[in-house]
Amino acid sequence: MAKKKYLSGGKSFPGGAYPNASKYYSEDEEISLMPAPKTVYIPVVQDSGGVWAKREIVVQAGQAVKKGQVIATITNWNTANVHSSVSGIVKGIEKRSNPNGIKIDHIVIENDGKEDEVLLPILNDPSADEIIERVKEAGVVGLGGAGFPTHVKLKPPSPVDSLLINAAECEPYITCDDRIMQDLTEKFVEGVKLMAKALGVEKIYIGIEVNKPDAYHALKKYETENFILVKLKKKYPQGAEKQLLYASLRRKVPVGKFPGDVGAIITNVHTALSVYLAVKEGKASYERVTTITGGGVTRPANIWIRNGTPLEEVLAHCGGIKEGEQVVKIIAGGPMMGSAMIDLEPVASKLVSNVIFMTPAETFTDKPTQCISCRKCISICPMILMPVMIDDCVEFEDYAGAKAYHVNACIECGCCAYICPAKRALITSMRIAKDKIWELGL
Amino acid sequence: MERQNLIVSPSPHFTNKGFFRAHTTQSIMMHVCIALIPALIASVLFFGPSSLVIVLLCVAACIVGELLFNLAAKQKLTINDFSAVVTGLILGLNLPIFVNEAGDPTPFAHWYIPVVGGLFAIIVVKMIFGGIGKNFANPAATARLFVFFAFGAAALYPIYHNTFEYFQTISVLGGATPLQAVSEWFAGSSWGDDPMSSIAPVALWDMFIGRTGGVIGETSVLALLIGGVYLGVLRIIDWRIPVIYMGGTFLLILLLTGSLNAGVIHLLGGGLVFGAIFMATDYASSPKSDLGIYIYAAGLALITVLIRLFTALPEGVSFAIVLMNLVNPLMDKYFIHKPFGYVKPVKPA
After folding, report:
1. Is there a domain that residue B14 lies in?
2. For B143-186, how does the pLDDT look when each residue is reduced to its tens digit (9 = 90+)?
3. ipTM
4. Number of inter-chain CB pairs under 8 A, A vs B
5. Measuring CA to CA, which of A43, A331, B84, B244 is 20 to 30 A from B316?
6. A117: number of CA atoms within 13 Å, CB side?
7. % of chain B at pLDDT higher than 90
8. What domains can you pick out in chain A, each with its CATH number?
């Protein structure tokens, strides 16, 4: 396939990796629709509230529900409403694995095929509070993968002056944001403006990596002095919020703080689209554009998938495993930070932006060997940490030492393990160190 | 679909691939071997095929040493990572050509020197301390010093008299290498004197391409620079170390002797370029932090200059490298990078 001509220039941040973007599988596939499945299994955890927090399910087995009806409600400040993605009968609650392999509650709904939808009233000229209230009602969460509830994000504790849209999509393979900017440009731009209104900010920045020339040109005509496109270098992790904010606005987020503390709110492309759909079309967040990609899938695609659709059916919709290919890893999320799945039991949800079917040539199976102290991890770390020293501390169970090397500032982007010639599981060490520091109260 | 074949592992699931991106330990070591090929070719051109014999003996000793240690310690075999080959090559290129009374090269007469050196480098300096990445000092530099002290007078000095067997255009070289000559010159010179006459008939150009005396791999600065640029471009070595080390040495010599030519002779002569590119940049024995690297490289330059100018030894690169290697664990412990967006913790009043 012909390589796309990248835009020139672009801002950046210190450190970072240059992984093979591998977006060519799906970047030219227009967003398509996948028909709703016979039965959906809607996970009650579709936000950043964590799998162990208690959820409140507001439907019972045997109850008839409509599309867009609330089936689980907000229980905590960092959770969001969950809506039914089909109309039909609730069959009960089933334990299924989420992409991390943890068994969580899924509400089973049998689709009656009528597509009866509960639409929220359309707001033509909403005030800031109306937008936030609507976003809360519609269960919009950050659709980049973390799932932080957007209604919380739109009420920052300290004053902010800019809204920064993360259109970097720095993870290899993922193309859903790229396609949204091209195929649904107007809705996306409207959504961004609604968010800016809710936040009460003037300046809107769109941080976009130079490997998305089509999306850049599609957005170019909306550019004004308050709607600014920022070209970013093709580099990973360009979309990590601290790196993105530094690259586009040259603001440094202090360790342990959030972008809001330096006056900027960062949100993802698809989130802006969902805000538009909630406010202007009255649709709750019960489906999302998901990229199905990788060398192992017959027809890579960017598809609107209803929450709760089993990935088995999604794969079948995309033509199944490619003839003659062997799939060795299935990843929910990007290849740098996503999780490898045990099987295809997990379902599509707000938190699954991407499913990659990886062939042996795309991933790696090397066993870790002894560290050769080559310093590549130090020179690549976007947080300017020293992963090799932290790894050493973890090996000798010196967690106080790991803390002294600032392991708590690690964003787990995976650059160090990506570059490591000895293929050491550095990210695992970082996580162990963080957990132990927390556990031991260091 | 065959589920039992799915791999479940922590992120990232993507890795750096490609030989020229130096993606594995093995490929890094192979690139270092490739970078040493110009120096090896130069050594054969200037010193004859016996230099190849010495280098190969060294490489063989290193591989056998690692293999024996693996077997004795019941470890998994680690010789396939090529690091023993690199150590053997570097050590071999750091040994002199052996000659008999008549001045003919006799590589096998002192066969035990490369063998003992190679075994010492691998077993004592590297494997006992935990193998690759765990050596406390550069194995080749340490082994070079070891054979220098163990066999010095017998094995090392004859080289300086009979080096121009091949590609010889200058008919007679005095009893000393240019570095020895300039070292003797310094003792009796005053600030600003020109040392060129003391190293004649060798010219600076001869020293650059390698037509001069010394150990077999270090004389051709041109060949070494080719290897150094190769490694620097592939980001296998940290270019800051050789640049600060060589630049620092040049400036210090310039400052102390007041002669540009003396600076250039010290830069081109002896093991400075070889040591700076291939030995000072050894991963395990160089510091991890940026500040550590600057101090390390500056310290190397300072110690080298002090040894070369103010002691009886003409050559100080190996000493400087091993001495600075020993400071590194301390620097790694105390020089910690400040993370991105670091704020000083406020002490409770």
Report:
1. no
2. 988 988 888 655 454 444 344 444 443 333 445 677 777 877 88
3. 0.87
4. 171
5. B84
6. 12
7. 47
8. 1-33+119-362 (3.40.50.11540), 39-111 (2.40.50), 376-440 (no CATH)
